[in-house]
Amino acid sequence: MANVGCEEKLRLEARAFLQLAKTGQHPLLPVLLPAHPQGTIEYQPYGWTVIKGHIKYFEVFKFVDGTILRNLLLKNPQPWYQHVGWIILSVADCVYYLHQAGNLHLCLNPDVVLVRYDKQGIPRPILLDLGVADPGKSIYEMWNENYNLAAYTAPEIADGYTGVSPATDVYGLGVLLYEMLAGRPAYEYYLKKDPAILKNVTEGEFKTTGRIDLKNIPEIAEKAIALQPNQRFPDVLAFVNALQPNFPPIPAERRSFKVNWRILFIILGALLVISLLLLLALSTVPH
Prior knowledge:
By secondary structure, the chain is mostly helical. 41% of the residues lie in helices and 9% in strands. It has helices at residues 7-23, 69-75, 81-100, 139-142, 155-158, 166-182, 194-203, 217-224, 236-243, 261-284, and strands at residues 32-33, 47-51, 54-58, 60-61, 67-68, 113-117, 123-127.
């Protein structure tokens, strides 16, 4: 359901989900369903209802199990670095998919990533939303403070004039990577008001991750969140190409074998009938 101030964002997002699904559903994006059971997804990619006199817009997705990344970080602010890499590389693949479709996300933060751990203990993230989902409008015309948390907003959005690009989403991936490596956000936001946080963001002064136990990875995170877009990786592909060699390949998920009980009962029933027929045939044979 759309938060206050994000109604138009949700409507645009639902239409974008619909268009992306027509070109091929990305496995790490949620599956959009019709807003009403009796409707079709083409005509009702989103729905609306009235709660306490206010219109509320909503989307319906196929259920996916997991935990919001922020909740995971509350329990363990500094996950194992290898899991960190796999989470970021998976989310980056989704963001690159959006870029290939001509969209920018611009709203990455720990609240829009759902993480499921498979039976092998491998994190399997899902990117829950598409961000702004509309490259046709000026970001500064449509942006409002409810679209993203201040501590995760890129400097070029916060300053209101620099302009956005794929490097803006590199920044979003970078702040997630930084936070999981350092065990703290790049820009502290506890007990701070948004204007003070945004001032820190636009000044671009953050501490290093302090991860002297890791090679290359902290430097990649810090480059990704550089103040000026031209000081970062130019696009998500360049970011991934720098980060990926520092981690082993993400293991393929082992799918659990599911018994089709209907087919099993049909087979058992057929075997039982055959057995009865054989017994009947044997009983009629003269001794």
